[in-house]
Amino acid sequence: MIVTNEIAITMQSTHRLVTVILLSYNRPTYLREALASVSAQSYPNIEVIVIDNPSLLSGEIEKIVSEFKQARLLKNSVNLGYAGGMNVGIKEARGYYICLTEDDIVLDRECISQLADYIDTRQETTLVAPIQYNMSDLTIRCAGGEFTLGAVYRKRIIGAGEKDIGQFGTSIRVSYVPGSTIFCRLSEMKHLNGFREDFFMYFEDTELCARILKAGGEIHVVTGAKAFHFDPSMSQPIETIQYHNIKNFFSLYTLHAPFKVLPEFVFRYAILETVKDLLKGKTKFHLRIKALLWVLMNLPRLVKDRLTSVTLINR
Protein backbone atom coordinates (compact mmCIF):
# COMPACT_ATOMS: atom_id res chain seq x y z
CA MET A 1 0.00 0.00 0.00
CA ILE A 2 1.41 3.39 -1.04
CA VAL A 3 1.08 6.19 1.49
CA THR A 4 0.65 9.54 -0.25
CA ASN A 5 2.23 12.72 1.07
CA GLU A 6 -1.23 14.02 2.01
CA ILE A 7 -1.91 10.93 4.14
CA ALA A 8 1.54 11.12 5.69
CA ILE A 9 0.98 14.76 6.73
CA THR A 10 -2.39 13.91 8.27
CA MET A 11 -0.89 10.92 10.02
CA GLN A 12 1.86 12.96 11.63
CA SER A 13 -0.54 15.69 12.71
CA THR A 14 -2.86 13.34 14.63
CA HIS A 15 -0.27 11.56 16.78
CA ARG A 16 -2.77 9.34 18.55
CA LEU A 17 -1.84 8.50 22.12
CA VAL A 18 0.40 5.44 22.47
CA THR A 19 0.49 3.62 25.80
CA VAL A 20 3.83 1.91 26.31
CA ILE A 21 3.39 -1.06 28.64
CA LEU A 22 6.75 -2.20 29.97
CA LEU A 23 6.86 -5.45 31.92
CA SER A 24 9.47 -5.71 34.66
CA TYR A 25 10.67 -8.68 36.68
CA ASN A 26 13.87 -8.89 38.69
CA ARG A 27 16.08 -7.07 36.15
CA PRO A 28 16.82 -3.52 37.33
CA THR A 29 20.21 -3.69 35.61
CA TYR A 30 18.49 -3.39 32.25
CA LEU A 31 15.38 -1.46 33.26
CA ARG A 32 16.94 2.01 33.37
CA GLU A 33 18.19 1.73 29.78
CA ALA A 34 14.83 0.36 28.64
CA LEU A 35 12.95 3.28 30.20
CA ALA A 36 15.47 5.80 28.90
CA SER A 37 14.89 4.53 25.37
CA VAL A 38 11.12 4.93 25.78
CA SER A 39 11.55 8.46 27.14
CA ALA A 40 13.77 9.35 24.16
CA GLN A 41 11.22 8.34 21.50
CA SER A 42 10.63 10.86 18.73
CA TYR A 43 6.90 10.12 18.86
CA PRO A 44 5.42 13.01 20.87
CA ASN A 45 2.30 11.49 22.48
CA ILE A 46 3.19 8.64 24.84
CA GLU A 47 2.12 7.45 28.27
CA VAL A 48 4.27 4.86 30.04
CA ILE A 49 3.05 2.14 32.39
CA VAL A 50 5.60 -0.10 34.09
CA ILE A 51 4.18 -3.37 35.41
CA ASP A 52 6.34 -4.96 38.10
CA ASN A 53 5.88 -8.63 38.86
CA PRO A 54 7.22 -8.80 42.44
CA SER A 55 10.74 -10.04 43.10
CA LEU A 56 13.52 -9.51 45.61
CA LEU A 57 14.61 -6.50 43.54
CA SER A 58 11.21 -4.76 43.36
CA GLY A 59 12.40 -2.00 45.71
CA GLU A 60 15.25 -1.12 43.37
CA ILE A 61 12.88 -1.26 40.40
CA GLU A 62 10.53 1.21 42.10
CA LYS A 63 13.42 3.66 42.63
CA ILE A 64 14.43 3.45 38.96
CA VAL A 65 10.88 4.05 37.73
CA SER A 66 10.61 7.11 40.00
CA GLU A 67 13.48 8.69 38.01
CA PHE A 68 11.23 8.86 34.95
CA LYS A 69 8.40 11.35 35.55
CA GLN A 70 6.57 10.12 32.47
CA ALA A 71 6.31 6.58 33.86
CA ARG A 72 3.62 5.18 36.16
CA LEU A 73 4.40 2.06 38.19
CA LEU A 74 1.81 -0.65 38.83
CA LYS A 75 2.98 -3.23 41.37
CA ASN A 76 1.40 -6.67 41.19
CA SER A 77 0.95 -8.39 44.56
CA VAL A 78 1.94 -11.74 43.01
CA ASN A 79 3.90 -12.76 39.94
CA LEU A 80 1.35 -12.94 37.10
CA GLY A 81 3.91 -13.96 34.50
CA TYR A 82 4.14 -12.35 31.08
CA ALA A 83 0.51 -12.92 30.10
CA GLY A 84 -1.13 -11.73 33.32
CA GLY A 85 1.32 -8.87 33.77
CA MET A 86 0.72 -7.47 30.30
CA ASN A 87 -3.05 -7.82 30.75
CA VAL A 88 -2.85 -5.59 33.83
CA GLY A 89 -1.25 -2.88 31.69
CA ILE A 90 -3.75 -3.39 28.86
CA LYS A 91 -6.64 -2.81 31.29
CA GLU A 92 -5.04 0.42 32.54
CA ALA A 93 -4.02 1.79 29.13
CA ARG A 94 -5.66 4.96 27.78
CA GLY A 95 -3.97 5.08 24.38
CA TYR A 96 -5.43 4.49 20.95
CA TYR A 97 -2.42 2.24 20.41
CA ILE A 98 -0.42 0.12 22.82
CA CYS A 99 3.23 -0.82 22.58
CA LEU A 100 4.17 -3.85 24.65
CA THR A 101 7.81 -4.18 25.65
CA GLU A 102 10.00 -5.54 28.43
CA ASP A 103 12.77 -4.46 30.77
CA ASP A 104 15.52 -6.04 28.65
CA ILE A 105 14.52 -4.24 25.43
CA VAL A 106 15.95 -0.92 24.21
CA LEU A 107 13.89 0.81 21.53
CA ASP A 108 15.49 2.82 18.75
CA ARG A 109 14.45 6.47 18.92
CA GLU A 110 12.22 6.16 15.82
CA CYS A 111 10.72 2.77 16.73
CA ILE A 112 7.28 3.87 17.92
CA SER A 113 6.94 6.50 15.16
CA GLN A 114 7.71 3.86 12.53
CA LEU A 115 5.20 1.39 13.97
CA ALA A 116 2.45 3.99 14.43
CA ASP A 117 2.89 5.44 10.95
CA TYR A 118 2.73 1.99 9.38
CA ILE A 119 -0.37 0.66 11.13
CA ASP A 120 -2.26 3.96 11.04
CA THR A 121 -3.22 3.55 7.37
CA ARG A 122 -3.58 -0.23 7.32
CA GLN A 123 -6.83 -1.35 8.87
CA GLU A 124 -6.22 -4.93 7.74
CA THR A 125 -3.09 -5.14 9.91
CA THR A 126 -3.76 -6.14 13.50
CA LEU A 127 -0.28 -6.57 14.96
CA VAL A 128 3.03 -4.98 14.02
CA ALA A 129 6.48 -5.38 15.49
CA PRO A 130 10.02 -4.06 14.94
CA ILE A 131 13.04 -6.08 13.93
CA GLN A 132 14.83 -7.21 17.08
CA TYR A 133 18.62 -7.20 17.22
CA ASN A 134 20.98 -8.84 19.70
CA MET A 135 22.56 -6.12 21.80
CA SER A 136 25.89 -7.96 22.04
CA ASP A 137 26.77 -8.14 18.33
CA LEU A 138 23.90 -6.30 16.59
CA THR A 139 22.95 -9.35 14.57
CA ILE A 140 19.25 -9.92 13.91
CA ARG A 141 17.54 -11.72 16.74
CA CYS A 142 14.12 -11.89 15.12
CA ALA A 143 12.44 -10.34 12.10
CA GLY A 144 9.22 -12.17 12.84
CA GLY A 145 8.67 -15.77 11.91
CA GLU A 146 6.42 -18.53 10.70
CA PHE A 147 4.96 -21.42 12.67
CA THR A 148 3.05 -24.52 11.61
CA LEU A 149 0.86 -26.61 13.90
CA GLY A 150 1.32 -29.89 12.06
CA ALA A 151 1.95 -33.38 13.36
CA VAL A 152 5.49 -32.04 13.82
CA TYR A 153 5.66 -28.53 15.26
CA ARG A 154 7.76 -26.16 13.18
CA LYS A 155 8.79 -22.56 13.79
CA ARG A 156 11.16 -20.53 11.64
CA ILE A 157 12.61 -17.26 12.91
CA ILE A 158 13.35 -14.91 10.02
CA GLY A 159 16.84 -13.44 9.86
CA ALA A 160 18.12 -14.99 13.09
CA GLY A 161 21.91 -14.53 13.41
CA GLU A 162 22.19 -12.50 10.19
CA LYS A 163 23.63 -9.05 9.75
CA ASP A 164 21.07 -6.53 8.53
CA ILE A 165 22.27 -5.53 5.08
CA GLY A 166 18.91 -4.30 3.84
CA GLN A 167 17.78 -7.76 2.72
CA PHE A 168 14.15 -7.06 3.62
CA GLY A 169 11.62 -4.66 2.12
CA THR A 170 9.72 -2.07 4.12
CA SER A 171 7.67 -4.78 5.83
CA ILE A 172 7.42 -8.55 6.18
CA ARG A 173 4.09 -10.33 6.50
CA VAL A 174 4.53 -13.09 9.08
CA SER A 175 2.51 -15.46 11.23
CA TYR A 176 4.52 -14.85 14.41
CA VAL A 177 6.12 -11.97 16.31
CA PRO A 178 7.66 -12.23 19.79
CA GLY A 179 5.69 -10.81 22.68
CA SER A 180 8.66 -8.76 23.87
CA THR A 181 7.85 -6.04 21.30
CA ILE A 182 4.28 -5.79 20.01
CA PHE A 183 2.31 -2.79 18.73
CA CYS A 184 -1.44 -2.75 18.05
CA ARG A 185 -4.72 -0.92 18.54
CA LEU A 186 -5.89 -1.05 22.14
CA SER A 187 -9.49 -1.66 21.03
CA GLU A 188 -8.54 -4.78 19.10
CA MET A 189 -6.39 -6.18 21.89
CA LYS A 190 -9.28 -5.71 24.32
CA HIS A 191 -11.66 -7.29 21.82
CA LEU A 192 -9.35 -10.30 21.76
CA ASN A 193 -9.33 -10.33 25.60
CA GLY A 194 -5.58 -9.84 25.65
CA PHE A 195 -3.32 -12.77 26.42
CA ARG A 196 -4.50 -16.06 27.86
CA GLU A 197 -3.49 -15.77 31.49
CA ASP A 198 -3.42 -19.55 31.96
CA PHE A 199 -0.35 -19.55 29.68
CA PHE A 200 1.60 -17.46 32.25
CA MET A 201 4.74 -17.49 30.07
CA TYR A 202 5.97 -19.28 26.93
CA PHE A 203 3.86 -19.72 23.79
CA GLU A 204 1.53 -16.91 24.93
CA ASP A 205 2.67 -14.78 21.96
CA THR A 206 2.28 -17.69 19.51
CA GLU A 207 -1.22 -18.34 20.85
CA LEU A 208 -2.18 -14.68 20.40
CA CYS A 209 -0.84 -14.72 16.85
CA ALA A 210 -2.80 -17.91 16.10
CA ARG A 211 -6.00 -16.24 17.37
CA ILE A 212 -5.40 -13.15 15.23
CA LEU A 213 -4.78 -15.21 12.10
CA LYS A 214 -7.87 -17.33 12.80
CA ALA A 215 -9.92 -14.13 13.10
CA GLY A 216 -8.70 -12.86 9.73
CA GLY A 217 -6.08 -10.37 10.91
CA GLU A 218 -2.61 -9.74 9.52
CA ILE A 219 0.73 -9.56 11.33
CA HIS A 220 3.60 -7.50 9.91
CA VAL A 221 7.17 -6.70 10.89
CA VAL A 222 8.06 -3.09 10.08
CA THR A 223 11.69 -3.15 9.05
CA GLY A 224 12.29 0.56 9.70
CA ALA A 225 11.43 -0.01 13.37
CA LYS A 226 14.27 -1.38 15.47
CA ALA A 227 14.59 -2.81 18.98
CA PHE A 228 17.66 -4.17 20.76
CA HIS A 229 17.52 -7.14 23.11
CA PHE A 230 20.00 -7.70 25.93
CA ASP A 231 21.38 -11.22 26.14
CA PRO A 232 18.77 -13.40 27.85
CA SER A 233 19.12 -14.00 31.56
CA MET A 234 17.43 -16.79 33.52
CA SER A 235 14.86 -15.06 35.73
CA GLN A 236 12.69 -18.07 36.57
CA PRO A 237 13.64 -21.49 38.01
CA ILE A 238 14.33 -24.00 35.23
CA GLU A 239 11.57 -26.32 36.50
CA THR A 240 9.01 -23.51 36.21
CA ILE A 241 10.13 -22.76 32.66
CA GLN A 242 9.97 -26.42 31.60
CA TYR A 243 6.54 -26.91 33.14
CA HIS A 244 4.94 -23.92 31.40
CA ASN A 245 6.73 -24.71 28.17
CA ILE A 246 5.22 -28.21 28.03
CA LYS A 247 1.78 -27.19 29.36
CA ASN A 248 1.39 -24.33 26.93
CA PHE A 249 2.68 -26.31 23.97
CA PHE A 250 -0.11 -28.86 24.39
CA SER A 251 -2.64 -26.13 25.14
CA LEU A 252 -1.68 -24.31 21.94
CA TYR A 253 -2.34 -27.44 19.90
CA THR A 254 -5.63 -28.11 21.69
CA LEU A 255 -6.78 -24.58 20.91
CA HIS A 256 -5.58 -24.16 17.33
CA ALA A 257 -4.13 -27.24 15.57
CA PRO A 258 -6.13 -29.00 12.82
CA PHE A 259 -8.00 -32.00 14.23
CA LYS A 260 -6.40 -34.33 11.67
CA VAL A 261 -2.87 -33.84 13.08
CA LEU A 262 -3.76 -34.40 16.73
CA PRO A 263 -3.47 -38.24 16.86
CA GLU A 264 0.10 -38.24 15.53
CA PHE A 265 0.95 -35.16 17.58
CA VAL A 266 -0.23 -36.84 20.81
CA PHE A 267 1.70 -40.02 20.00
CA ARG A 268 4.87 -38.11 19.16
CA TYR A 269 4.91 -35.50 21.93
CA ALA A 270 2.80 -36.99 24.72
CA ILE A 271 3.74 -40.67 24.55
CA LEU A 272 7.20 -40.86 22.99
CA GLU A 273 8.54 -37.73 24.70
CA THR A 274 7.21 -38.92 28.06
CA VAL A 275 9.07 -42.22 27.66
CA LYS A 276 12.24 -40.32 26.73
CA ASP A 277 11.88 -38.08 29.79
CA LEU A 278 11.42 -41.13 32.01
CA LEU A 279 14.68 -42.56 30.71
CA LYS A 280 16.48 -39.24 31.27
CA GLY A 281 15.44 -38.81 34.90
CA LYS A 282 12.59 -38.39 37.31
CA THR A 283 12.53 -34.58 37.46
CA LYS A 284 11.71 -33.90 33.80
CA PHE A 285 9.34 -36.90 33.70
CA HIS A 286 7.39 -35.57 36.68
CA LEU A 287 7.23 -32.09 35.13
CA ARG A 288 5.85 -33.51 31.89
CA ILE A 289 3.25 -35.60 33.74
CA LYS A 290 2.24 -32.56 35.80
CA ALA A 291 1.88 -30.47 32.64
CA LEU A 292 -0.11 -33.13 30.78
CA LEU A 293 -2.43 -33.58 33.75
CA TRP A 294 -3.11 -29.84 33.75
CA VAL A 295 -4.07 -30.00 30.07
CA LEU A 296 -6.35 -33.01 30.66
CA MET A 297 -8.09 -31.34 33.60
CA ASN A 298 -8.64 -28.18 31.56
CA LEU A 299 -9.48 -29.93 28.30
CA PRO A 300 -13.24 -29.12 28.33
CA ARG A 301 -12.52 -25.40 28.75
CA LEU A 302 -9.80 -25.41 26.10
CA VAL A 303 -12.05 -27.19 23.60
CA LYS A 304 -14.88 -24.75 24.34
CA ASP A 305 -12.52 -21.82 23.73
CA ARG A 306 -11.34 -23.45 20.50
CA LEU A 307 -14.91 -23.45 19.20
CA THR A 308 -15.49 -19.80 20.10
CA SER A 309 -15.34 -17.66 16.99
CA VAL A 310 -13.89 -14.13 17.14
CA THR A 311 -14.11 -11.58 14.34
CA LEU A 312 -11.79 -8.60 14.51
CA ILE A 313 -13.59 -5.28 14.75
CA ASN A 314 -11.72 -3.62 11.89
CA ARG A 315 -12.66 -6.28 9.35
Report what the structure shows.
This protein is α/β, with parallel strands linked by helices and 315 residues long. It has 2 domains: 5-229, Spore Coat Polysaccharide Biosynthesis Protein SpsA, Chain A (Alpha-Beta Complex), CATH 3.90.550.10; 238-306, no CATH class. Helices cover 42% and strands 23% of the residues. It is built from 11 helices and 12 strands. It has helices at 5-14, 28-39, 58-66, 81-92, 111-120, 186-191, 204-214, 238-256, 262-280, 282-297, 299-306; strands at 18-24, 46-52, 71-75, 97-102, 105-107, 125-134, 140-142, 145-149, 153-157, 171-174, 181-185, 218-229. Strands 1, 2, 3, 4, 5, 6, 7, 10, 11 and 12 form a 10-stranded mixed β-sheet that branches. A hairpin with a 5-residue loop joins strand 6 and strand 7. Helix 2 (28-39) runs parallel beside helix 3 (58-66) and helix 7 (204-214) packs parallel to helix 8. It is globular and about 55 Å long.
Descriptors:
alpha/beta; Spore Coat Polysaccharide Biosynthesis Protein SpsA, Chain A; ten-stranded mixed sheet; 2 domains; globular; 315 residues
Tell me how many strands there are: 12
Tell me the span between the first and last alpha carbons: 17 Å
CATH topology of the largest domain: Spore Coat Polysaccharide Biosynthesis Protein SpsA, Chain A
The CATH architecture term of the largest domain is Alpha-Beta Complex
Give the class-level CATH name of the largest domain. Answer: Alpha Beta
- Relevant CATH superfamily of the largest domain: Spore Coat Polysaccharide Biosynthesis Protein SpsA, Chain A
- The parts where pLDDT drops under 50 for at least 5 residues are 1-13
Shape: globular
Strand content: 15-25%
